[in-house]
Amino acid sequence: MDLLHNISQLATCPVNGKQEEIGSISDAALVWEFGKILWVGKENALPDTYRDALPHDCGGRLVIPGLIDCHTHLCFGGWRGNEFAQRIEGKSYLEIAAAGGGIASTVKATRESSFDVLKQKAAGLLEEMLALGVTTVECKSGYGLDYDNEIKQLEVYAALQQEQPLDLVPTFLGAHIIPPEFTERRDDYIELLTNKLLPEIKRRELAEFCDCYIDEGAYTVSEGRKILQAAHALGFGLKIHAEQLTHTGAASLAAELGAVSAEHLERITVKDHKLLADAGTVAVSLPLASMYLKDDYIDARGLIEAGVAVAVATDLNPGSSPSGHLPLAMLQACLNQAMTPAEVLKGATSIAAKAIGRENLIGSLLAGYQADITIIDAKDINHWMYHFRANACAAVIKNGVWQHNRL
Amino acid sequence: MDLLHNISQLATCPVNGKQEEIGSISDAALVWEFGKILWVGKENALPDTYRDALPHDCGGRLVIPGLIDCHTHLCFGGWRGNEFAQRIEGKSYLEIAAAGGGIASTVKATRESSFDVLKQKAAGLLEEMLALGVTTVECKSGYGLDYDNEIKQLEVYAALQQEQPLDLVPTFLGAHIIPPEFTERRDDYIELLTNKLLPEIKRRELAEFCDCYIDEGAYTVSEGRKILQAAHALGFGLKIHAEQLTHTGAASLAAELGAVSAEHLERITVKDHKLLADAGTVAVSLPLASMYLKDDYIDARGLIEAGVAVAVATDLNPGSSPSGHLPLAMLQACLNQAMTPAEVLKGATSIAAKAIGRENLIGSLLAGYQADITIIDAKDINHWMYHFRANACAAVIKNGVWQHNRL
Fold this sequence. Notes:
alpha/beta; 23% strand; TIM Barrel; 7-stranded mixed β-sheet; 2 domains; Urease, subunit C, domain 1
């Protein structure tokens, strides 16, 4: 039995209640055993039962639930740093794509990369995320775009789940773009997804969720409905990349199908807010994509005021958001989505947990929850969010086990 | 004698030439001895003279001059994280100031902090900057705003220069704002600056530069001219906080007085570009201040095209830019100032050196320069800038001595 004490602020982050209600406790303590939280409260109210727990002095720091990055494209071949410089010099996305760049180049590099190379690269990225205080990562396929390579990406996630401490939540995103070789026969690819890949992935339990990118240049709403309905029938949870570049009606589809999350939403309308609120669908905001693309940021205030829970994630990928730095995404959400540090914290903990269907297991520091705990070298969340440092994380406990301890 | 080899890209960053000309060498090597660079070139062209140097394998990484943060307010009491949350909630700067917040609260906290407390805090910030690859830091006074407390801040810098490895370049910014107790008698404070503080600081060699914040709510152009002329007569180099919130003519004054740098410049006009270019005054851009304040970014393209050298610095301070993360400032300069990674790199090395009058000593990896060297875990500068990580710095050599070595 272990005890964290001398905590200046502890945020329990209950999933229910308003987005700003983080359940803050000052001068707090927390007890855990066998990977489960037993007790959280004021240090001076610690029950006698826990007096013998092994104490760990947090030095007056902030304690929060382990961070959850609920939207990443973790496994990919290659990088695209040169395109970054080209975009600054004024080259358009279309020019870059015509010269063999863009997402097609990542598909090519992912197909050409071996399982081991992809796994090692993703493992390195996860290690850096853990050091920042992230304990759970949703990770999508979608750069294979054929039978073998979509399975290869998901197998990388399955192997990494066994080999490193973070919990991974795999999502099948075979419907990311139409693969180059199927542009003239889209229906054949959709049939491959629904009739072959989805059943096989279900059989082998390689993914919990099925995602679909609905946008101009990607899938139509009716194609998305077909793919997601097939996934739903097989028992997958549903996610949608919705309303990023154009408004297509994808958020409305997310509500209609009862998707756990609608992600991106830069082009969402006020009408959609209510639909998502009524459906209990989480809006996953991806501020680093807006930052890197110099695009509009999501209307987080409108969503929150309509009663939609807004998560914050990195969108880690080699093109539009080449960073797995969740605290930077959180800072950008404060600055550019007008979310307070408290709202952002819940967006990267309990609400992010809801976006991956695990809100009863992780994302909150409450008795019975998994002991995923991050200790931040700041006295409160306002200071943490505003004073941007390379890494303010002082220690991470994952499933009850210390992973980094710089206390 | 030491040798760095197996370098995928080395940027020499000569101070002359266009901003984009970073003197890139692929498959490079570098030799140094007694804190001075002896030789830089292609590894396969290493002269026999250096064959016995102690080799250090850079593992195919990027090697750049030690980064220079040429604009910081390093020494201050307290922090202002709560104001950050208040601003997001919609409180105006004036409301916050009326409630005792804003810069006046930092002045109060700095005056109330002991020399030791200020020194320890600044030392912690410097340590984090060094870990990021920063080897020289300009640091301003300006939160004391009275005789004893301005001297106290500069004494902190003098002490830190002796106790830690980074080079500090102290700047006297007694003319930051008009101190609260002098609002009704501005001239008396200016007389304190020019007749007492400047001569004493010169006598004790506590600062190399004199800076003045010319803006609405701070000093007028004619007050600034008076202060800076007095400083110039005493032999100080000149810097100006210019054209940040309003256009006052401060950039033109910088050119007129031959200041080494004009800093901020969010409100600079095209007319000013030519004046700065002709005077050889460096434009110091502070993208993190724009990011945190949600203000306009500087017109870097206009300045560069007019022939002005544009530096990039953090503006580290507890209000408008509470971060000493220079690589984040550099990323924001790429994204929001339309500067290429190459231009930004020169802006944080040789051009930053020029902004502190040390361009013949540091900021370039050329024979004869001080051996301030940063090794980045990326194969080239484009990849480094685009893939934002907590800390991509793999090792730092300061004045020939290894400071961090994670190779």
